[in-house]
């Protein structure tokens, strides 16, 4: 029995079973035993944060077992909509409770691929869901490509993949006919540790890069797939039997950021999700008539859904210079609008839309086993929903035309712009202005830290340092030594193995007479002034400085402090603003 037919044995519409709990001010999905289902076959109802024990929240004055506000579907004209049952839950003559403000920022949104990014739009929050939604999800064992589980006190990296595989009804005419699918649209979503901001990095499918060796799980066991050099990025999925874990490994090699999880969807995701929310508003700066994608719009703002929405994100000949890079911009604008629609009160206050959205989103998803259940997706969604929409930014990996080609069909990484952008993401630096939650650092402390970095610098060849690993990451000290000696020219560096204890922050202890060496090393490694710890006595003879890597260590050669702003020319789309496609 599918989601829409559950509970209809007695003419009860599932959408009508979303009722307002007067204790919490939130809508909840309730099923009673009269809905034609046995206790064992009834779907499990997830509880709100206010009642996380797994038991149902009872409303004072209610007879046990009675469902507040549940109503039978009326077959007569003029019957009330889904919100009618919610109002009845409060009882006759009872003053209407004002919904809690926090409810406006909660949504039941789990999806993947090109629309997976909208997970940021909200979380399961206080809404209850059927256990049967677990059955909608497809999962893939990525064989250690991810971290196995995101941590609530750490930054989160989610890889969102849109495949061009021809799956789903009505998609026979899209994509490559005989292809197992490619990584057609790929977005690396980085959410900061403190959840104040998020950056969504689009990776062009025609990027020339290296695809590393990877392992996939098959019915007969584990299969090793050799990597390839100088191939299109989109071949990291589907081709040579590669699964999303191979794409995750490729992204890590490319950006230096470890991906925690992936979410993937096909063409149907756009169609079903846009229909579930009643359409998405888009703006075009000119009339559009693209015979290839079948997109036809007049200049101005339109509300699109289903096939028309899919045509909008697929079109390559309607905007810009008709390249894949311009298509990426259009997709980013579309996803921003979809997020705003999901955040809108029109969506969050409609039980019918929320039900349809949950059904469409879970059916659209393929995820790794680390988040392969509704409970885990809910937890992830609740973390990501803490990010304010105005602090979410889309950007595209900076690229250049491939110099090896006469006819420009592929691109290569623009290292000069990409490296600072990667550093910003790794250091949780927002691409938009983020309001500080509170003044964590006093001005005096900032000035003192900056003062440590002022003054003369030694030559790299004169820097003498012992490296200890207190990061908790195996091999961190040796990889740092390799980078210092081979790339930075710090030959007088030694690996002193593990520190006596792990520590949260990287520190550099030095004698006052080694200040010039400390500043040079700070420049090379991107150490903040707060990491520099001057000793009380001068260093004696060939005594080395002591560098202890902390939990904030992000990789050899990766700065601990990112640039204050993005490099000039890096493309951006801010999620809270509507932009007309040109």
Tell me what the structure shows:
The structure is a single chain. This protein starts with 17 loop residues before the first strand and ends in an 8-residue tail after the last strand. It has helices spanning 82-88, 244-255, 268-276, 306-314, 324-343, 345-348, 351-364, 374-384, 415-426, 443-452, 476-486, 515-525, and strands spanning 18-21, 26-29, 138-140, 156-163, 183-191, 198-203, 208-211, 214-218, 221-225, 228-232, 261-265, 280-284, 288-290, 295-297, 300-304, 366-368, 392-396, 399-401, 411-413, 464-469, 492-498, 507-510, 532-534, 545-549, 572-574. The chain has 582 residues and is an alpha/beta fold. Helices cover 22% and strands 20% of the residues. A hairpin with a 6-residue loop joins strand 5 (183-191) and strand 6. The relative contact order is 0.12. The strands form 8 sheets. It has an 8-stranded mixed sheet, sandwiched between helices. A 5-stranded mixed sheet has the order 21-20-24-22-23, with helices on one face.
């Amino acid at each position: 029995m599918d989601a829409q037919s559950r509970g209809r044995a007695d003419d009860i519409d599932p959408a009508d079973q979303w009722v307002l709990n007067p204790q919490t001010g939130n809508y909840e999905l309730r099923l009673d035993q009269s809905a034609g289902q046995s206790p064992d076959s009834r779907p499990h109802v997830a509880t709100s944060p206010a009642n996380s024990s797994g038991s149902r929240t009872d409303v004072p004055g209610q007879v046990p077992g009675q469902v507040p506000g549940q109503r039978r579907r009326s077959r007569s004209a003029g019957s009330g909509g889904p919100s009618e049952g919610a109002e009845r839950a409060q009882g006759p003559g009872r003053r209407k409770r004002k919904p809690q403000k926090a409810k406006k920022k909660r949504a039941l949104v789990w999806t993947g691929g090109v629309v997976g990014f909208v997970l940021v739009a909200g979380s399961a929050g206080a809404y209850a869901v059927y256990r049967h939604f677990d059955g909608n999800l497809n999962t893939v064992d990525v064989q250690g490509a991810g971290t196995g589980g995101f941590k609530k006190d750490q930054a989160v990296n989610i890889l969102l993949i849109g495949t061009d595989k021809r799956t789903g009804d009505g998609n026979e005419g899209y994509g490559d006919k005989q292809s197992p699918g490619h990584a057609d649209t790929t977005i690396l979503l980085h959410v900061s540790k403190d959840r104040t901001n998020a950056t969504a990095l689009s990776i062009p499918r025609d990027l020339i890069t290296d695809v590393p060796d990877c392992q996939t799980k098959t019915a007969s066991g584990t299969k090793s797939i050799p990597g390839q050099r100088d191939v299109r990025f989109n071949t990291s999925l589907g081709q040579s039997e590669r699964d999303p874990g191979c794409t995750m490994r490729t992204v890590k090699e490319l950006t230096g950021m470890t991906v925690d999880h992936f979410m993937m969807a096909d063409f149907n995701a756009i169609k079903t999700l846009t229909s579930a929310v009643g359409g998405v508003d888009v703006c075009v700066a000119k009339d559009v008539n693209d015979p290839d994608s079948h997109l036809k719009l007049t200049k101005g703002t339109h509300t699109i859904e289903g096939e028309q929405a899919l045509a909008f994100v697929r079109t390559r000949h309607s905007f810009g210079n008709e390249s894949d890079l311009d298509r990426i911009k259009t997709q980013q604008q579309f996803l921003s609008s979809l997020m705003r629609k999901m955040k809108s009160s029109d969506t969050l206050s409609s039980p019918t839309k929320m039900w349809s959205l949950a059904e469409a989103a879970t059916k659209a998803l393929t995820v790794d086993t680390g988040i392969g259940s509704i409970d885990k997706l809910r937890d992830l969604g609740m973390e990501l929903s803490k990010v304010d929409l105005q602090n979410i930014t889309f950007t595209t990996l900076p690229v250049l035309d491939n110099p090896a080609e006469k006819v420009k069909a592929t691109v290569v990484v623009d290292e000069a712009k990409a490296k600072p952008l990667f550093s910003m993401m790794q250091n949780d630096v927002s691409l938009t202005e983020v309001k500080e939650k509170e003044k964590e650092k006093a001005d005096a402390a900032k000035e003192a830290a900056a003062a440590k970095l002022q003054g003369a610098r030694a030559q790299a060849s004169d820097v003498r340092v012992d490296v200890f690993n207190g990061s908790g990451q195996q091999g961190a000290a040796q990889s740092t030594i390799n980078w210092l000696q081979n790339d930075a020219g710090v030959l007088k560096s030694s690996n002193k193995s593990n520190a006596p204890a792990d520590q949260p922050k990287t520190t550099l202890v030095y004698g006052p007479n080694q200040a010039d060496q400390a500043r040079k090393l700070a420049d090379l490694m991107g150490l903040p002034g707060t990491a520099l710890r001057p000793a009380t006595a001068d260093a004696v003879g060939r005594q080395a400085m002591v560098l202890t890597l902390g939990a904030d260590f992000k990789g050899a050669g990766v700065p601990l402090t990112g640039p204050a702003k993005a490099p000039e020319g890096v493309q951006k789309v801010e999620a809270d603003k509507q932009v007309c496609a040109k």
